[in-house]
Fold each of these.
Amino acid sequence: MHRRQFIRRAAAAGALGTLAVGTATAAEPPSRPDHLENVGDDLDELRKYQPSIIASREARQLLVGCYGWYADSSEYPDLRAYYYWFKYPTQQSGLTSLIPFLSGPDAHFSDHEPYVCAVDKSTGEVVRTLQSGYHHFVLDLPESDLELRTQHGDGPTHPKLRVVDPWHHFRNGRGASRDGVLPDTISGAEFGSWLDKRDSWYKNDVFKKTSKTAVEDPFSLIDSRDTWWKDGTWDAWAARNIWIPLGLRGADESDTLRVEDS
């Protein structure tokens, strides 16, 4: 069996196991914030603002898919936010990595890495990007710090980002000698609508430890939030107080995070 097929079948088996024990308490999707307008998932629009990622061969093989959507906001009339989730088969929780012999469910049922691209609605230019820069903590990159690439005939609208193995968080790819690739061109990976995945991801508890505000409102990340984690989770506390200060579990392979500037 091809390695990629094996990984995906194993992930699917894990998903069925989770559903078998968790159906009765499956989470329901929350209501979207009232200030969101013109919510959409047109794939041509999503392709235009997907990042150009520098990823290892293994990371590209592991990528299950990239899923996006976009919205305007009455509170940010000049901006449109394009919001994507990169899905990989697995990532260990902070507790499991701290106690190696401890086995248990994944911290967030597979590995889901978020990326938000804020765009000036009048010019179509990228204003800033907000991505998981380490363990679901925000890496905030203004346009002046980005290398924007022209690909697919679009552009320059594709920020160049590096994917860090094996955690899959993002670093700024500006100045890197390698060119990036667009997620929708990666063989075997799906590119589609997050709105189509939304209900099933909630029901499968993908966002059990994630702030629903951060999931549903990309504009909440533009000025204020420093993490996608829900308040009070072990993973958020460990990353903020142990992993980041000590440079452990990939924290030494990250750019300056918003939480480190606060």
Note: Confidence is low (pLDDT under 50) at residues 1-24, 92-109.
Amino acid sequence: MQTLVERAVAEALRDGGGDAIRLYAAACAERMAPLFVGVRAGELGREADLDFYAESVRDLWHADRPLDNAAEGVRRLERFPELQPNEEGITDVADIYAFFAVLCLRYALLAHGSGNADHAVSCGHAVLTAMGMLDQNVAGAGFLAEEQRLQFLSLSGDASGLWDASVTAGRERFRAVLGRLPR
């Protein structure tokens, strides 16, 4: 399968072991969290989903050990409306980015629970795909290049600097998506 994740990043994940995989997955999910939480906030009946999403992202930052309940979290995410088949496809801006955010978290949980580098690469691929789409729809944007830079930074092992950078990037992405939503 062709992937947008840089070859050097994928190789570093495969060589880096569980801690590197878990930190990378946590950072990817953190950067995408505002795209789910922000666009789904206030939707009736989604309160528990929002709480679960935020708690899952928080728990991913415990990169020193696999999550005990990662498989259960994946099963719960797979019941989210964003991951349900839809004959019409996804065309609404909010739905598109919420889908990629949920997909990212799904792969992040899989990677965190298993330590499997391929799950981490899939997580990064989902983020890069979303950022490529955002670049195509926001004039002068550089979200894809910034995501590639942050994915390399994810391999540094510095969780505090990475968390700060991921939170900031997530906010910027959310502002860009908000600007694309119908008023």
Note: The two ends are 38 Å apart (CA to CA).
